[in-house]
């Protein structure tokens, strides 16, 4: 009887102990399951999608979730989302819970390898720049020793040899390596045209490629009323084509580099300018339908894309004008004198092949001041000189020269200053000679000239002054 009464509390304590053990095991299993899922999600998020630790909060309040786009099955973004209305932890990570550990680690290792490649490429570029800086400093020290007398033959020979070496270094620096991606416009010439022109259907001898901006309606109107109206001069047929890019809102803002623009130049620029982007686009299409002399490429029309426009113009001229002998390039604020050009092209000193003439600038050093429009940092261009190049005023070349320059552009990395890239880098790589236009026309470069805007001289007034000489 006594033994029976003592066994009741023992059985009660045993039942309580078994209940506690069962609860402990269940809590442990549940905790391990949730912790595994949370840690797996965290590994994928922080390794593959680069989510910071601050985006993760305690498990009991909020959890990160992968949101999927309606049109794609790939994760688009991470964010913290409350799960009060979800109620089930397994619904928080619908895809991450199904991801095996091997796939998680593969993504992690893949992202690490990509980062290492970026670091190696950056370090390699820095090493190349350091070598260029060191060689430049050594050449300056050597020049000081050799060129104590600037007019001595030894000094002149040293400078000529050093310039030639530097030009080769520039081409090697901008040469496209095997693991580099080529630019689809500048290197591969994959252009599409929103607007095209049939100006070469009249079989012209000279085509004038005018680089214009999408909102320069007034300047194009002035060109059509001046030198573009003279289609035949002394038996030479001319055709003028304007090259534009796609209009953009960013490029409609005032040009901060033109703060010194005169009142006359600003009036000519804004003449006929519509109010907004849609009206500008409609006006361009109307202008193209009326005159048929506009080519619009499939790239944004901006100052940094002038090299794309330059290569596009050469590519268009060679593919659309098979009978053209001479190609002239000019900006839309430049006056081309077709009478002076026709006189030179019909003369006995003009070559029908291998000709490239322009105004060669005396200053060939890059601009290092941030106030300048053509500012270049040492990281962007580590050299102290440009190759011999043409001013953007205008240039005249034969068809074979344009073909050679276009061929050379396939292996040279793009550079945003188009005149330096085309008539400097590409010309030097092809080994083409450059004729200074002042040797042909004298001190006054009558082929291409600018109105005297500082004296408020209009485009039309300068044109009348040129043709009356």
UniProtKB/TrEMBL annotation:
The keyword Glycosyltransferase applies. The chain crosses the membrane at residues 17-34. GO terms for biological process: protein O-linked glycosylation. One of its GO terms (cellular component) is Golgi membrane. The keyword tRNA-binding does not apply. Gene3D superfamilies: 3.90.550.50. GO terms for molecular function: hexosyltransferase activity. It is found in: Golgi apparatus membrane. It is a single-pass type II membrane protein. Its EC number is 2.4.1.-. InterPro entries: Glyco_trans_31. Keywords: Glycoprotein, Glycosyltransferase, Golgi apparatus, Membrane, Signal-anchor, Transferase, Transmembrane, Transmembrane helix. Belongs to the glycosyltransferase 31 family. This is Hexosyltransferase. It comes from Candidula unifasciata. The lineage of its organism: Eukaryota, Metazoa, Spiralia, Lophotrochozoa, Mollusca.
């Amino acid at each position: 009887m006594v033994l029976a009464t003592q066994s009741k509390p023992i059985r009660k304590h045993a039942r309580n102990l078994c209940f506690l053990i069962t609860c402990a095991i269940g809590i442990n299993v549940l905790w391990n399951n949730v912790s595994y899922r949370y840690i797996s999600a965290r590994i994928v998020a922080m390794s593959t999608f680069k989510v910071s630790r601050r985006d993760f909060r305690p498990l009991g309040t909020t959890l990160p979730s992968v949101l999927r786009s309606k049109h794609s099955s790939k994760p688009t973004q991470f964010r913290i989302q409350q799960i009060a209305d979800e109620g089930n932890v397994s619904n928080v990570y619908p895809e991450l819970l199904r991801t095996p550990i091997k796939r998680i680690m593969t993504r992690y290792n893949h992202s690490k390898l990509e980062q290492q490649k970026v670091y190696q490429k950056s370090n390699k570029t820095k090493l190349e720049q350091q070598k260029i800086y060191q060689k430049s400093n050594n050449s300056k020290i050597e020049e000081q020793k050799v060129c104590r007398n600037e007019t001595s033959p030894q000094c002149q020979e040293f400078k000529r040899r050093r310039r030639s070496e530097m030009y080769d270094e520039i081409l090697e620096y901008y040469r496209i390596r095997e693991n580099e991606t080529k630019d689809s416009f500048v290197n591969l010439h994959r252009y599409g045209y929103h607007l095209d022109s049939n100006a070469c259907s009249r079989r012209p001898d000279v085509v004038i490629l005018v680089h214009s901006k999408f909102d320069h309606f007034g300047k194009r109107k002035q060109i059509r009323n001046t030198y573009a109206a003279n289609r035949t001069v002394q038996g030479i047929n001319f055709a003028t084509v304007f090259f534009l890019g796609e209009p953009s809102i960013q490029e409609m803002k005032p040009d901060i580099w033109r703060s010194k623009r005169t009142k006359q130049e600003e009036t000519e620029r804004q003449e006929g300018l519509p109010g907004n982007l849609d009206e500008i686009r409609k006006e361009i299409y109307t202008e193209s339908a009326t005159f048929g002399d506009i080519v619009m490429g499939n790239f944004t029309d901006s100052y940094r894309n002038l090299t794309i426009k330059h290569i596009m113009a050469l590519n268009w001229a060679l593919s659309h004008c098979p009978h053209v002998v001479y190609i002239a390039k000019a900006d839309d604020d430049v006056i081309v004198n077709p009478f002076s050009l026709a006189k030179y092209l019909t003369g006995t000193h003009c070559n029908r092949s291998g000709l490239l003439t322009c105004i060669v600038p005396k200053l060939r050093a890059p601009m290092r001041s941030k106030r300048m429009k053509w500012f270049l940092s040492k990281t962007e261009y580590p050299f102290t000189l440009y190759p011999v190049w043409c001013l953007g005023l205008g240039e005249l070349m034969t068809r074979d020269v344009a073909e050679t320059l276009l061929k050379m552009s396939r292996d040279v990395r793009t550079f945003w200053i188009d005149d330096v890239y085309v008539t400097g880098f590409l010309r030097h790589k092809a080994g083409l000679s450059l004729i200074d236009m002042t040797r042909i026309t004298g001190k006054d470069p009558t082929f291409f000239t600018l109105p005297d805007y500082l004296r408020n001289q209009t485009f039309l007034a300068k044109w009348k002054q040129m043709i009356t000489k």
